[in-house]
TrEMBL record:
Biological process annotations from GO: phenylacetate catabolic process
Gene3D superfamilies given in the database record: 1.20.1260.10
Protein name in the entry: Phenylacetate-CoA oxygenase, PaaG subunit
Pfam families, alphabetized: PaaA_PaaC
Family annotation (InterPro entries): Aromatic_CoA_ox/epox, Ferritin-like, Ferritin-like_SF, PaaA, PaaA_PaaC
One annotated GO molecular function: phenylacetyl-CoA 1,2-epoxidase activity
Organism: Truepera radiovictrix (strain DSM 17093 / CIP 108686 / LMG 22925 / RQ-24)
Domain of life: Bacteria
Record-level GO cellular component terms: cytosol
């Protein structure tokens, strides 16, 4: 009966086994994974927009090449993740529709503007840094296709992280103008990067079920602590000031930080952030402008089928 199947499923999770697409799984497990993976995929493709705006304005050919490679990587991560969600029965059409109509969530952090070139470096260091902590955790996820996608994505994110850190450190140790740009970028990206890792565990309705079934192997606050523990000392070493006067390390090694503005977080998640509207308009425009490609592919595959018949 159902109870026996659920018990067998939970025993597999407890034994550290990977659940694969054809395996039996509770409907709630499937739904949780479609929710998380599709939102993760949306985050990757929307995440291309803020930094993509700087490809035409990169200060050197080298920086332009690095940025093009990074944005292309993110498009690929989106494809992996949409495919991983499809293994659970979600369709590309449904997921695309949910994103374009504003119904689907994607990472709040991408609703902030990239005002100067230093933002591109800070996104690489902080946003990709937070993503690496989150995705390294998800690489141990109990669902096979998701955990395997994470292994590949994490290696590419490491390059994103290194290039951002290298750029920001150069600016922080550069001219006064460059240092001011790096500090201004830190002032605007520090808190959104903390929020990106999700609400506090006490306000995280999905975490208990996700941890129980091995989808999340660490909680939001645990991943946030890992992010702060790595990035706070390195940002300070680079001579930058973290915009949180309360930030300090506790005697037990954990980090104390000031209160996070969750009102801002929920406002942005609900669609009322600085760039939410612009991001959805850009995605809808790209979808419309790409219609001829989808139609051509459809016609080509139908002709191929007709000839094969
Ligand atoms: N932005 C938007 N919505 C968020 C959010 C964020 N930063 N953090 C949480 N939420 C939403 C959740 O989706 C949930 O809403 P829902 O139930 O309608 O989906 C609600 O807030 C409550 O939060 P929970 O903590 O209960 O949600 P989760 O347990 O799912 O934890 C999460 C949130 C840690 C983001 C988790 O969903 C997760 O690990 N997702 C997959 C990884 C991911 O999306 N990483 C960040 C973006 S990828 C990226 O940065 C690209 C890289 O190239 C830079």
């Amino acid at each position: 009966a159902y109870e026996a199947k659920l018990a067998a499923f939970e025993a597999r999770i407890a034994a550290g086994e990977r659940i694969e697409p054809g395996d039996w799984m509770p409907e709630a497990y499937r739904k949780q994974l479609i929710r998380m993976i599709s939102q993760h995929a949306h985050s990757e493709v929307v995440g291309m927009l803020p930094e993509g705006e700087w490809i035409g304005r990169a200060p050197s050919l080298r920086r332009k090449l690095i940025l093009i490679a990074k944005v292309q990587d993110e498009a690929g991560h989106g494809q992996y993740l949409y495919h991983a969600a499809e293994t659970l029965g979600a369709t590309r059409e449904e997921m695309t529709e949910a994103l374009l109509t504003g119904r689907a969530k994607y990472s709040s952090v991408f609703n902030y503007p990239t005002l100067t070139w230093a933002d591109v470096g800070m996104i690489g260091w902080l946003v990709d840094g937070a993503a690496i902590k989150n995705q390294t955790m998800l690489a141990r996820c109990s669902y096979g296709p998701y955990s395997r996608a994470m292994v590949r994505i994490c290696t590419e994110e490491t390059f994103h992280h290194k290039q951002g850190k290298e750029m920001v450190i150069r600016y922080a140790q550069g001219t006064p103008k460059q240092r001011q740009m790096a500090q201004d970028a830190l002032d605007r990206w520090w808190w959104p990067s903390l929020m990106m890792l999700g609400p506090h565990d006490s306000d995280s309705p999905n975490t208990p079920q996700l941890v129980k079934w091995g989808i999340k192997t660490k909680t939001n606050d645990e991943v946030r602590q890992e992010f702060i523990a790595e990035h706070a000392p390195e940002l300070q070493e680079a001579g930058l000031v973290i915009p949180d006067p309360e930030l300090r390390q506790n005697p037990d090694g954990t980090w104390h930080h000031g209160p996070i503005d969750w009102d801002e977080f929920w406002r942005v998640v609900r669609g009322d952030g600085i760039c939410n509207k612009a991001r959805l308009e850009a995605k809808n425009r790209a979808h419309d402008e790409g219609r001829w490609v989808r139609e051509a592919l459809q016609a080509y595959s139908e002709r191929g089928r007709a000839q094969a018949a």
